[in-house]
Write a structure and sequence with these properties.
Layout: H1 7-28, H2 33-50, E1 74-79, E2 82-87, E3 93-97
Antiparallel strand pairs: 1-2, 2-3
Length: about 100
């Protein structure tokens, strides 16, 4: 008979791994940008596999190219109650309202 998976435990472990990888990404983004991108790719892959939401951590990297945001690789503009983040690697634009 097959052993049942404990999905809550799996999600908890996945959450911890995602947090760890994104923290590593933030620490290494000024030293080795390609390694930092790899950490983000792994974190997003884990999140998709175990269906874990990234919530506030989504603002740390570009949705399209998965490069971590860095001061020289992004542009932030605030106008008319909205924030616009432009990724200078791929050109994608992320907009959200300010409450």
């Amino acid at each position: 008979m097959a052993v049942r998976r404990d999905k809550k435990l799996e999600k908890k472990i996945a959450q911890e791994r995602i947090d760890y990888l994104l923290n590593l990404s933030q620490k290494t983004k000024w030293v080795d940008y390609s390694l930092s991108k790899r950490y983000v790719e792994l974190a997003v892959r884990i999140a998709r596999k175990y269906r874990v939401r990234l919530r506030k951590r989504k603002l740390l990297f570009c949705r399209k190219c998965l490069h971590p945001y860095r001061g020289d690789r992004m542009r932030v503009r605030i106008s008319k109650g909205a924030v616009r983040i432009v990724c200078l690697n791929c050109g994608s634009v992320r907009r959200f309202r300010i409450k």
